[in-house]
Amino acid sequence: MIQRRSHGNGTFTLADFQALGPDTVIEPTVLVFHPETISLGKGVYVGHQTILKGYFDSSMHIGDGSWIGQQCFFHSAGNITIGRQVGIGPAVKILTSQHRDAGREIPLLLSPITRAPVVIEDGADIGIGAVILPGVHIGRGVIVGAGAVVTRDLPDWAVATGVPARVTRLRNP
Has 75 been annotated as catalytic? Predict the structure, then answer.
């Protein structure tokens, strides 16, 4: 039997962050794990009940002026990089690790974990309830529709919707 251990209660002080830009707002009910691996740029907003789950040997960077809605969950085992002026709607999930199927004889929970970074470029907008899976690169100015599940890279200026997310058009110049 695997012995489990707590990851802590998510409390933090502003001094705990790797970097914290001026005019950043972190609402009181936000939980942060491994803040020493997280850097937030200037003027970032992090909404109520969001969980920023840093990871001891990886990083999370959120660029200047980005807005993170309430009840989001970011797990950065494989690294998360979010550019400047990115809007992320409420309840968005960003995941950077997953269990690899090691065959029927091994419970999936006990199978090896693979990690892959998520990158969201400047000016993108991620709709409410979207899920971004490991290894995805979302280009500059992309719009991801509400509830979309992004399983593959999206090019600059794309509009993507659905499950799995598909590019429906490119934004006008």
Answer: no
